[in-house]
Each structure stands twice: as C-alpha cells, then as structure tokens.
Amino acid sequence: xxxxxxxxxxxxxxxxxxxxxxxxxxxxxxxxxxxxxxxxxxxxxxxxxxxxxxxxxxxxxxxxxxxxxxxxxxxxxxxxxxxxxxxxxxxxxxxxxxxxxxxxxxxxxxxxxxxxxxxxxxxxxxxxxxxxxxxxxxxxxxxxxxxxxxxxxxxxxxxxxxxxxxxxxxxxxxxxxxxxxxxxxxxxxxxxxxxxxxxxxxxxxxxxxxxxxxxxxxxxxxxxxxxxxxxxxxxxxxxxxxxxxxxxxxxxxxxxxxxxxxxxxxxxxxxxxxxxxxxxxxxxxxxxxxxxxxxxxxxxxxxxxxxxxxxxxxxxxxxxxxxxxxxxxxxxxxxxxxxxxxxxxxxxxxxxxxxxxxxxxxxxxxxxxxxxxxxxxxxxxxxxxxxxxxxxxxxxxxxxxxxxxxxxxxxxxxxxxxxxxxxxxxxxxxxxxxxxxxxxxxxxxxxxxxxxxxxxxxxxxxxxxxxxxxxxxxxxxxxxxxxxxxxxx
Length: 489
Ligand SMILES: [Zn+2]
Description:
Blueprint lengths: L1 H17 L11 H11 L12 H17 L2 E2 L6 E11 L4 E6 L2 E4 L6 E3 L6 E9 L5 E2 L4 E2 L10 E5 L17 H10 L4 E5 L27 E4 L1 H8 L6 H11 L5 E11 L1 E16 L10 E7 L5 E2 L2 E2 L3 H20 L7 E7 L2 H4 L1 H8 L8 E7 L8 E4 L5 H14 L15 H6 L4 E6 L18 H19 L11
Parallel strand pairs: 6-9, 9-10, 10-11, 14-17, 14-18, 18-20
Antiparallel strand pairs: 1-13, 2-13, 3-4, 3-12, 5-11, 6-12, 7-8, 13-17, 15-16, 19-20
Helix pairs in contact: 1-10, 2-7, 2-12, 3-7, 7-12, 10-12
The structure holds zinc ion (ZN).
Zinc ion binds next to loops.
C-alpha cells in the first residue's frame, strides 16, 4: 500500500513538473540568481551586517523587489519587521604589531589577523601572556589564570575549547565575549585568539559577529591572529603554538606562560547596544478558502558579517545566495501565474550571524498559531559546492521525501545524507514543532566568512538546480499535497 502511494506521488509530481507552465520553473534561471548575488555582495552593501547602513540598503533592495512583484506586505510596517540588535562598527586604521626582542613585525589585516566583530577599542603597547584555553573553572579544578599575573597585559588564548573533558563535564561555551570577560576580570587589557594548530584544518581568520552573552567590554580589543603570528609571539619560549597545545592536551593541565614579548594594538570601534534592524517579509495569499489560513514559509538570512576597517566580507554564498533564491522563487510564483492553495510567506532574516535573531523574532512574533505554519524551508549557503543536501530530514521525514522524490525525477543532485533538528534559521521554527527543510550545498563552506566568499566562486548550474528543487518542493506543499507531520526532536 505504502509503495503504491509512493509511486502515485512520484507520478503526480512527474506530471506537474512536465507541465512547466504550471510550475513557474522556467522563471528561475542562473543568470538572475547570480545577478542578485553580485548586487548584494558588492561593496555598496558593505557586507550586510545587521544594524549597519549596508544591511538597511540590502533590506530596501529586497523590499523594492517584493513590491515590484506585487507581494503582499507581511511585516509590521509594510514589508519590514523591525527589532533591535547589537551592532559594532570597526573604523580605520587598525594596528597590530609584535615586538620580539629588538624586532618589530607589523601585521596586515585580513592576512595575519582579523578583529572579532565585537572588539572593543583601545590603543596600547603591552606585554603578552599565553593563557592556554583561556578557561577559568576552579570548580572543575582547571584554571589557565591560576598562578600567573595578566594584569595590564594582553592575553593570547586558543579560540576553541579543549576536545577533552574533566570528570565528563563540558567546559561551557567558547564565545569570544565570555573568554574576553574572563581575561578582563583577571586584569588583562586585550585578547588575541588563535585557532588550534593541531587541527587537521585549523580554522582560518574569519569574520564573525557571534559573540555570546554578557556586557560588551568597550575598552577591550579582541583579535583573532594567525598561527604564524602566534608562533612569533611565542618564539622566545623556544616552543611553538603546536608544542604548547600538545603539552597541555597530553597532561590536561594549564601551561600559562609569560612570553617576554610585546604587542602593539590600536582599534577603534563604535558600539551600539540597540541598533535598529529588520526582517523583510512578503506574502502570496492562498487561493483555497480554507487552506489559505495555512502558511508555507520560505526563508533565508539576508545579513552577513559586514566589514572591518575597509576589509570587506562579501558573503556571496553566505547568504546572498539564499536571499537571491528566495527572490527568484517569489518571482517564479508571481510570474508563473501560480495560485497556491496555501499562503506562501517569503522571509529574509536579519541578525543570523549574531545569533539567529531575525528568525527568532519572526517566530516569537507569529500570532496565528504554530500549527498554521505547514512547513518552513530555509535556504542558507546554496550557491557554492558540488551537490545538494537537504537537512532536517530526520525530524520531518515526509517533507524530506517530497524534496527527494522531486530531485530523483528532475535533478538527481541531492545526497541521501540529512540531519535532525533544524539548523541555523530553521532552528527556532523546528523548536516550535514546525516541519522544516534546510537547503544547502555540500562542501559549501570553503570560503565561509572569508573575504574570498565572492560571486565568481559560485557554481551557477548547481545553484539553479537547488533553487528549482526548493521551488517545486514549496509548490507541492503549498498546493496541499502534504499533511503536516509531527516533528521528531
Ligand atoms: Zn554565516
């Protein structure tokens, strides 16, 4: 019986795909997809950090497109759903130098170091102390700050937490602001984060505004430096960063050390606790008198990590690609003349990079009942890579099957591997019991949060296939051919 239904479902999908005029599929093309990514990732939009002018410009760009398409405004004020967010603007110039004995090395922003998005401001030349993982947990009998004086010094710590546990306990978070506040509490004046050198592929120098909880330490510079720069700062100890990590990990004991070197740091950032930002939300009302009160949400985050003192993080794949995909799907619905039975909401979220704030705001301000959202489709990093992956299939397997069957019939580009539990902007929806699908490409993260995440690196052929797959999946759900399932957590 089940296989009969499956066959029938594939048949129905096959019919609807062959009748291209009824799907709007011919409206989706790689040229338009790439064009919008090119615009959104250009210097004009300044890396689209939520709270910035560049982001506001991007939001207006989307709202204008929605308006041209005739989407119904579905924000609080027209297409916009406003909320406040922490925002930090990093000004030029930024200086980072190491003074080792009589040698001064001047480092280059973007090549040897970057700033943490929520760096504080200051201007000083101070001694550097290496403080291992930067953890102070006397309750676990582990304290990188025990027996070492970091007062009026700069600390250098691993960005990540240890891979081992003490008494099977987690270390807590490794958010930069929290590690910074620990250092500051011990009297330090600034912090240098460095990636674990023994990782197979140590994390590169990324732009990131994910900061964690706590007060913003306004006078406390936070940098991420290269392993090479860290090795230079450690050179008078006769050990490399890799030696330090290996020794700490072997004994599971701190090895904090005064380095007999100095660093010059100069940073000026302008911090706003409550900057105004906005989601952009448009809608096509359903054509069925009953089903129009049920909604399919097609979402992507529009924001990225911004720029630092002139160093641009374009965010072409992350996530101008998903934003362009949402626009293109909206266009396919409108210009394809589709009249979906359920209502379809197109949502571009702000503040994903700071911690999913836009998607959380959307979910928390939803007033119609979470059972009225039939499904949420999230598109995040969909333009770079080599095949299509659809996440959350373990939590919403029936929804995932729809995408998988469409792929088998038309594109043959989707991998079987999936996951459970939302992911990024899908997470707040998943947590409310809303079935979600997370569209992403495999091997998508090569340029993640790097200045090299540029439009010319994208794979237009795969990009187009993925967007067509997401569109047909959305259409199938919107036309009532899916009964909302209970989400497996
Ligand atoms: Zn990102």
